[in-house]
Amino acid sequence: YVPPQARRAQETLDDKKREELGRLKKMVNGLINRLSEPNLSSISGQMEELYMANSRKDMNDTLTEILMNACVTAVAMPTRLVMEHVLLVSILHHNVGIEVGAHFLEAVVKKFDELCKSDAEGKECENLLALIAHLYNFHVVHCLLIFDILKKLVSTFTEKEIELILFLLKNVGFSLRKDDALALKELITEAQRKASTAEKKFQDQTRVRFMLETMLALRNNDMRKIPGYDPEPVERLRKLQRTLVRSSGSGRDTELRVSLESLLSADQVGRWWIVGSSWSGAPMISDTNSKTQQKLHLGKVSSKIMELARKQRMNTDIRRSIFCVLMTSEDFMDAFEKLLK
């Protein structure tokens, strides 16, 4: 039971909060609407001031909602506009804190996953993929996530997915090659294998052939073979980013090394990539997992040692593990390494 007096106080508090959020939304919206390359410096400065004056959660929610409304539409968004919006996020990510980029990234990836499963006719998927690609271009997220998305698209391999693979490779292909050439090579091999098995499935073979040609051009580092590829706008904005990001927060150390699976299951297993993020829920690793891991570890030890462990009454998995490590180690350093594992 809540007494009327307390109820009234709560209602006025809610109204106050709603009014504040409405005001904040108007201010952020006004700044985002005016966003362009020349005034990025002043707008990012004003956004930082808003972050200092308001709660981070309110700011993150408001900014993410406004950017998603601006960039995720049924028609293809102009590349430059998407890049400017993402650049603003990246500057705030480096200057204010990594939770800004992390919050936006999680919202974008979840929406992308949801739209991929539904058969949406519009260009929303491409727009979301462009946001993710530019978050990688401006060092908010590590290439690990991009490879996860590409692997997922290659494993499905329908015409819509081929379209998305081409779109992503055109935007970030050469950066991926620079960051992790081996993973890209494996991905290309997998795509070629899929293409050869799925040849009969497609009526229009040209699309698949074009994708494979693009992949080969990437592997051979041949930029001329990719139509419409122009690295100049990204490079120009990267230079601008370097001038606007304060040196302490710049560099690769603020990149989020997070996988697709971690982002999609963030509500169940917590957000380990945000320092101090609160989380309540089921334990991150279930007991069954840890038991199987221990048993697997013990499986490598000879039966003679296991017999000794049994004689010494090592009656739990953990005791047996420690006993086996001590008995089979070559020296104290080896034992230390194994015990840590």
UniProtKB/TrEMBL annotation:
Keyword Nucleus: yes
Classification via PANTHER family: CELL CYCLE CONTROL PROTEIN CWF22-RELATED (PTHR18034), NUCLEOLAR MIF4G DOMAIN-CONTAINING PROTEIN 1 (PTHR18034:SF4)
Residue ranges of domain MIF4G in the record: 25-222
GO MF annotation: an example: RNA binding
Subunit structure: May interact with EIF4A1, EIF4A2 and EIF4A3. Interacts with PPP1CA and PPP1CC.
Keywords associated with the record: Nucleus
Protein name as catalogued: Nucleolar MIF4G domain-containing protein 1
SUPFAM superfamilies in the record: ARM repeat (SSF48371)
Subcellular location: Nucleus, Nucleolus
GO process annotations (BP): ribosomal small subunit biogenesis
Gene Ontology terms: cellular component: nucleolus
